[in-house]
């Protein structure tokens, strides 16, 4: 962000070159070398992060080999654990989109948690008000309402950025705190089901308004919805003129303005879309998992989504495997606690190590000659 | 009605007392962030530093029996986090905001990881100064029971203001923050100065965490911070990077944070959670009021990424 503003001309040229992908050296080998860099470096950074966490465990006298074996077993070892992993990946897919879409326009929004909890409360409240509604109308209505609420919430962050120049990172996180307070107010006040004594919740959803499992699996429909949304987001960003315009804005705002692009509408539209996906994550959490809206909505999916988006380098298709990987790590938390006597925050530390490693990898892009065909001939 | 019952007068009094109590962590984090931002970097990871400082301070105070050892440990841990942030951001193309987010999550993860055994035990509290002992009203006494760290923080604000205004060190930090090129032309090493500023800023945020766990609320748990480390970043912008104004802004934010508990103490409980959101709404409102797309913010360091 800072370097773009420092030298608008050079980065404008750079961004146009990146977006249009003008090859300096031709040939399919050169093309593949460039593509390989975009995969090899994040994977390399992931391995470095996991290795660093292994050293951390070693320093504490725990075996990294045992740890990763357990993560594999609990996350990916059996069909049962795969189903658990995929279910946990569902909210991460959508939460990551709330980070990735605005990031493609150069905005760093980290308050997706707010859109998730409000989307969940919106869906839970609406569902509780219409238990008689048939599923075919009721479930889409809940999803749309949650997406509208989430979209308005994060769209407001984009609008504040565009209209008033308010820093989106700080405002989105502040709004996440406000959203959680709003959720607590609604769930413990106006929307509270009097029968929910220990854990204040909205009234339980009617059976018809619950999202069931995918056919033949113990994985709820939320996972499929999340995958579809990721593909839609990828097509939108990579294959449409809107997406092209959005990437130009992300490359250089001033250059995009000079081109006559509707920068404001793009910024607000894409942040709102990201928020709508996060709102949908909340709706899925309520309809497929919890059965009513309550405090469990603020489970940190929004924050794990930040890591997923950065690991996937804000690419919609890459989010799918990354979310499954992180979902598997989170699924292993219980087993790791029991078998290795490690606290439940172990996964948080692991995620932190991976996050730092992936950000540090930014500094080595373009440093490896093997990925830079234009330097192959020179010595 | 007995003679110590002061009815609704208790609300402003409780807000005043609360403002002093609640503002101290804001004060330390914002002074640390002020120094870091004046050097041209933004550290969004102070929320993680604060939580880790709270854990480290509590753990060391419990193990040694001395709360001041805890404060020192929290400052050292905070400095370490700041150092890591500063070093990482000195690498080319590494974004300071993103690293801040990562260190925020890592700091909280590490604090919860190592803090598990310290949720139950009781560590010694930091001492307080009774400025309200002249009054016979217990409410007044409670409101004016001021922690030593608050006094230190207030003094630190003045010292930092003076350092920026009248010393060579302050000038060096300001030059580095305003223009990397100018600093290089003067023969300064911008990265080193930024690393040092971030480390000192981190130490200050660590102390803020120790205040949370060792005085108010005065225990260690995973919900110890309610975003003070993050709000302080917005607070510094509102305070226009001026340490004295950071002090005023911290008091204001502390008062907003004390609104909910103060109203609850006189029996107003409806909408409690909405009052709980008051500091965030206030922060956001101030951020909106003080930001602008048209002009650079007055007093903003030139190299700061969020205001460019």
TrEMBL record, chain A:
<keyword id="KW-0472">Membrane</keyword>
<dbReference type="GO" id="GO:0005886">
    <property type="term" value="C:plasma membrane"/>
</dbReference>
<dbReference type="Pfam" id="PF02653">
    <property type="entry name" value="BPD_transp_2"/>
</dbReference>
<feature type="transmembrane region" description="Helical">
    <location>
        <begin position="266"/>
        <end position="289"/>
    </location>
</feature>
<feature type="transmembrane region" description="Helical">
    <location>
        <begin position="38"/>
        <end position="60"/>
    </location>
</feature>
<feature type="transmembrane region" description="Helical">
    <location>
        <begin position="347"/>
        <end position="368"/>
    </location>
</feature>
<feature type="transmembrane region" description="Helical">
    <location>
        <begin position="219"/>
        <end position="237"/>
    </location>
</feature>
<feature type="transmembrane region" description="Helical">
    <location>
        <begin position="301"/>
        <end position="326"/>
    </location>
</feature>
<feature type="transmembrane region" description="Helical">
    <location>
        <begin position="89"/>
        <end position="107"/>
    </location>
</feature>
<feature type="transmembrane region" description="Helical">
    <location>
        <begin position="114"/>
        <end position="133"/>
    </location>
</feature>
<protein>
    <submittedName>
        <fullName>Nucleoside ABC transporter membrane protein</fullName>
    </submittedName>
</protein>
<keyword id="KW-1133">Transmembrane helix</keyword>
<feature type="transmembrane region" description="Helical">
    <location>
        <begin position="170"/>
        <end position="187"/>
    </location>
</feature>
<dbReference type="InterPro" id="IPR001851">
    <property type="entry name" value="ABC_transp_permease"/>
</dbReference>
<keyword id="KW-1003">Cell membrane</keyword>
<keyword id="KW-0812">Transmembrane</keyword>
<dbReference type="GO" id="GO:0022857">
    <property type="term" value="F:transmembrane transporter activity"/>
</dbReference>
<feature type="transmembrane region" description="Helical">
    <location>
        <begin position="139"/>
        <end position="158"/>
    </location>
</feature>
TrEMBL record, chain B:
<feature type="transmembrane region" description="Helical">
    <location>
        <begin position="246"/>
        <end position="264"/>
    </location>
</feature>
<feature type="transmembrane region" description="Helical">
    <location>
        <begin position="193"/>
        <end position="214"/>
    </location>
</feature>
<feature type="transmembrane region" description="Helical">
    <location>
        <begin position="6"/>
        <end position="32"/>
    </location>
</feature>
<dbReference type="GO" id="GO:0022857">
    <property type="term" value="F:transmembrane transporter activity"/>
</dbReference>
<feature type="transmembrane region" description="Helical">
    <location>
        <begin position="97"/>
        <end position="115"/>
    </location>
</feature>
<keyword id="KW-1133">Transmembrane helix</keyword>
<keyword id="KW-1003">Cell membrane</keyword>
<keyword id="KW-0472">Membrane</keyword>
<dbReference type="GO" id="GO:0005886">
    <property type="term" value="C:plasma membrane"/>
</dbReference>
<feature type="transmembrane region" description="Helical">
    <location>
        <begin position="142"/>
        <end position="164"/>
    </location>
</feature>
<keyword id="KW-0812">Transmembrane</keyword>
<dbReference type="Pfam" id="PF02653">
    <property type="entry name" value="BPD_transp_2"/>
</dbReference>
<protein>
    <submittedName>
        <fullName>Nucleoside ABC transporter membrane protein</fullName>
    </submittedName>
</protein>
<feature type="transmembrane region" description="Helical">
    <location>
        <begin position="44"/>
        <end position="62"/>
    </location>
</feature>
<feature type="transmembrane region" description="Helical">
    <location>
        <begin position="270"/>
        <end position="289"/>
    </location>
</feature>
<dbReference type="InterPro" id="IPR001851">
    <property type="entry name" value="ABC_transp_permease"/>
</dbReference>
<feature type="transmembrane region" description="Helical">
    <location>
        <begin position="68"/>
        <end position="90"/>
    </location>
</feature>
């Amino acid at each position: 962000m800072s370097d773009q503003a420092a030298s608008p001309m050079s980065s404008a040229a750079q961004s146009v070159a990146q977006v249009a992908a003008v090859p300096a050296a031709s040939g399919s080998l050169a093309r593949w070398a460039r593509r390989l860099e975009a995969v090899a470096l994040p994977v390399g950074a992931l391995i470095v992060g996991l290795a660093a966490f292994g050293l951390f465990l070693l320093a504490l006298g725990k075996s990294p080999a045992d740890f990763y074996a357990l993560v594999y077993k609990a996350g990916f070892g059996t069909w049962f654990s795969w189903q658990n992993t995929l279910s946990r990946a569902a909210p991460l897919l959508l939460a990551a989109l709330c980070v990735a879409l605005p990031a493609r326009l150069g905005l760093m929004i980290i308050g997706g948690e707010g859109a998730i909890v409000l989307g969940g409360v919106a869906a839970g409240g609406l569902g509780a008000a219409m238990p008689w509604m048939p599923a075919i109308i009721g479930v889409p209505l809940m999803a749309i309402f949650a997406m509208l609420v989430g979209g308005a919430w994060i769209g407001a962050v984009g609008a504040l950025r565009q209209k008033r120049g308010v820093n989106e990172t700080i405002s989105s996180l502040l709004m996440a705190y406000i959203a959680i307070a709003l959720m607590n107010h609604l769930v413990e006040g106006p929307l509270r089901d009097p029968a929910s004594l220990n854990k204040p919740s909205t009234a339980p959803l009617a059976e018809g308004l619950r999202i069931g499992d995918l056919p033949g699996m113990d994985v709820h429909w939320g996972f499929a919805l999340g995958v579809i949304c990721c593909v839609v987001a990828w097509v939108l960003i990579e294959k449409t003129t809107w997406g092209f315009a959005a990437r130009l804005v992300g490359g250089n705002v001033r250059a995009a303005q000079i081109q006559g692009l509707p920068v404001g509408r793009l910024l607000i539209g894409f942040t709102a879309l990201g928020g709508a996906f996060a709102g949908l994550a909340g709706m899925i959490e309520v309809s497929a998992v919890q059965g009513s809206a309550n405090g469990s909505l603020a489970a940190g999916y929004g924050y794990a989504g930040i890591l997923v988006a950065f690991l996937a380098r804000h690419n919609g298709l890459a989010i799918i495997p990354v979310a499954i990987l992180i979902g598997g790590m989170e699924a292993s938390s219980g087993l790791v606690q029991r078998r290795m006597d490690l606290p439940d925050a172990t996964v948080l530390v692991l995620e932190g190590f991976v996050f730092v490693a992936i950000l540090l990898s930014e500094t080595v892009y373009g440093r490896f000659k093997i990925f830079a065909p234009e330097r192959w001939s020179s010595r | 009605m007995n003679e110590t019952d002061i009815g609704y007068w208790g609300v402003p009094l409780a807000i005043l007392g609360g403002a002093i109590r609640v503002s101290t962590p804001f004060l330390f984090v914002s002074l640390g962030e002020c120094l870091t931002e004046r050097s041209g970097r933004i550290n969004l990871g102070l929320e993680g530093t604060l939580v880790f400082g709270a854990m480290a301070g509590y753990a060391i105070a419990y193990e040694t029996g001395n709360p001041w050892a805890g404060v020192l440990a929290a400052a050292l841990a905070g400095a370490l986090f700041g150092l890591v942030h500063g070093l990482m951001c000195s690498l080319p193309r590494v974004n300071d905001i993103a690293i801040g987010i990562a260190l925020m999550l890592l700091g909280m993860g590490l604090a919860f990881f190592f803090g598990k055994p310290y949720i139950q035990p009781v560590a010694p509290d930091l001492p307080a100064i009774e400025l309200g002992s002249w009054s016979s009203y217990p409410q007044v006494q409670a409101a004016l029971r001021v922690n030593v760290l608050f006094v230190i923080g207030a003094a630190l604000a003045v010292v930092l203001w003076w350092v920026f205004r009248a010393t060579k060190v302050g000038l060096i930090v300001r030059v580095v923050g305003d223009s990397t090129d100018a600093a290089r032309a003067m023969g300064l090493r911008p990265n080193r100065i930024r690393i040092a500023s971030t480390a000192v800023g981190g130490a200050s945020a660590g102390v803020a965490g120790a205040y949370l766990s060792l005085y108010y609320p005065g225990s260690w748990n995973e919900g110890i911070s309610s975003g003070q480390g993050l709000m302080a970043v917005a607070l510094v912008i509102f305070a226009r990077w001026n340490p004295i104004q950071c002090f005023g802004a911290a008091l204001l934010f502390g008062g907003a944070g004390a609104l909910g508990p103060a109203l609850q103490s006189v029996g107003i409980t409806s909408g409690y959670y909405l009052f709980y959101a008051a500091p965030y709404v206030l922060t956001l409102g101030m951020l909106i009021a003080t930001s602008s797309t048209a002009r650079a913010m007055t007093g903003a360091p030139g190299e700061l990424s969020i205001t460019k």
